[in-house]
Design a protein that fits this description.
Blueprint: H1 2-25, H2 60-142, H3 155-187, H4 202-242, E1 251-254, E2 262-266, E3 275-284, E4 291-297, E5 305-310, E6 313-318, E7 324-327, E8 337-344, E9 349-354, E10 357-362, E11 376-379, E12 412-420, H5 426-432, E13 453-457, E14 461-463
Antiparallel strand pairs: 1-12, 1-14, 2-11, 2-13, 3-8, 3-12, 4-5, 4-11, 5-6, 6-7, 8-9, 9-10
Helix pairs in contact: 2-3, 2-4, 3-4
């Protein structure tokens, strides 16, 4: 234990000796290394202050003062002159305004009344003309004509009338504008500069509003006229598509080319005749090399009578294609055409008519021949087999469609089909061919349109 304490005391003593030695090595320099001294100058000499210059007291300052005073006086005089000129102009303008007010009060009323009278008279004339035109158009659209449809005026005349109305409306609008400008500008002293509007301008403002309302009314009339014209054009287009010629009220429609689509006809009298005339109206949808319109035949000769179309030509045969009458370039798809074929056995003269005009005449066609009865007559197809009346079963139903060919079928509309047992005169055929005439009312004695039994088959139908 003694030795341990001796060891601790030795350690403490060594630590104290080391601390003293370290403090002896540290040197602290507290001297001031900064000097506020000016090198090369004797610090014993005192620095004398720099003397300041006295206030400026030269003669130039007085001259500048005088110059500034003159400038200030000149500016004041200029302001005074401007104020004086403004007062003079203001007084003159007030005087001019008073004169204009007196002028407007003296002549404004009479001028405004005159303008209003002229405008009212022009409006009455235009309204009367518009009413007359609208009544004429209404009568033309609603009154039935001789064809049973609606009579519509010539589109060119209708367009001319509408253009005249539009021109009159524009002229009236421009005249009213000029009258308004002249009356409100010269009569009532109206000016475009601000500050010159008249206090008594209530009448002019009322007239301006009235003119504006009339212009709006005229614009409404113009819009109504344009709408009416569009409706008229649409009605004309619709009527041209639906209209049937020659006063006919129905037609046969063949919707497509098919061997099952045809119309069977039962004549009023047997066809044991030596002369005839066949007439019809037709509107083909499509054209082919050969299209059958009217066909009559029996078991010995299925081609006794045929009225055909070939592209743009019309053809007429008696007893077969060996006796052929042709009219070239008379048929157009989508347009109505009137065809007539006439034949007389005495001279064998066959004639083909298109739209009332004789196109082809051939003599020596089946001269002395008499058409046999008990045949089969159909529209829109030709029959190449045995007639149903001579079928072994007696019914004539089995295999009946087998005698037709879809390549020969007619597609389109057909109306006014009639047949006479004589040759019609040129005047009669021309009357039948009038689109606006009454051809459908002149019916044949062998086949009469609307009276003779016609039975559509396979999709053919009557339309009204």
């Amino acid at each position: 234990m003694f030795w341990w304490r001796l060891f601790q005391a030795a350690c403490v003593l060594s630590v104290c000796v080391c601390q003293l030695a370290f403090e002896d090595d540290m040197q602290v320099n507290y001297s001031d290394t900064y000097y506020n001294e000016i090198l090369g100058v004797d610090r014993t000499q005192e620095i004398e202050p720099t003397p300041t210059s006295p206030p400026c007291s030269s003669r130039d300052l007085t001259k500048w003062d005088k110059l500034f005073s003159m400038l200030e006086n000149s500016q004041m005089r200029e302001n005074m002159m401007l104020q004086y000129a403004e007062d003079i102009i203001k007084v003159e303008m007030e005087s001019l305004r008073g004169e204009m007010l007196r002028f407007g009060g003296q002549y404004g009323g009479s001028c405004g009344v005159a303008v209003e009278t002229v405008g009212r008279r022009m409006a009455m004339q235009f309204e009367a003309r518009l009413k007359e035109t609208m009544e004429r158009l209404k009568i033309a659209v609603q009154s039935p004509d001789a064809t049973g449809g609606n009579s519509v005026e010539d589109p060119d005349n209708l367009e001319s009338s509408l253009h005249q109305l539009l021109s009159a409306a524009r002229a009236q609008t421009s005249q009213l504008t000029r009258l308004e400008t002249s009356s409100t500008g010269a009569g009532t002293g109206r000016n475009t500069k601000p500050g010159f509007q008249l206090a008594e301008g209530g009448g002019a403002g009322h007239q301006e509003q009235e003119f504006t309302s009339r212009e709006v009314a005229l614009e409404g009339v113009l819009a109504a006229l344009k709408q009416t014209r569009a409706e008229q054009e649409e009605a004309l287009r619709f009527q041209s598509q639906r209209h049937l010629p020659a006063g006919c009220d129905m037609a046969l429609l063949f919707p497509m080319r098919s061997r099952r689509i045809y119309t069977a006809v039962t004549p009023e009298v047997p066809l044991s005749i030596s002369s005839f005339t066949i007439c019809m109206w037709l509107k083909p949808t499509t054209l082919a090399n050969k299209t059958v319109l009217f066909s009559y035949g029996h078991r010995r000769n299925p081609y006794e009578i045929q009225l055909l179309l070939g592209q743009t030509s019309a053809l007429f045969t008696i007893g077969g294609e060996a006796h052929l009458v042709e009219a070239r370039g008379v048929v157009k798809p989508g347009q109505w055409i009137h065809l007539c074929g006439a034949w007389a056995s005495e001279q064998g003269l066959a004639t083909l008519w298109a739209d009332g005009e004789r196109f082809a005449t051939t003599p020596g066609v089946a001269e002395g021949h008499v058409l046999p009865e008990m045949g089969s007559l159909q529209l829109g197809q030709e029959r190449s087999g045995c007639c149903p009346q001579y079928h072994s079963s007696g019914g004539g139903v089995s295999g009946f469609e087998g005698g037709f060919n879809s390549q020969l079928a007619f597609a389109g509309k057909m109306t006014g089909v009639n047949m006479w047992d004589r040759v019609l005169s040129e005047e009669e055929i021309s009357e039948l061919a009038l689109p606006n005439g009454q051809g459908c009312e002149q019916r044949g004695n062998v086949v009469a349109w609307g009276i003779t039994e016609m039975v559509p088959h396979g999709g053919a139908q009557f339309i009204y």
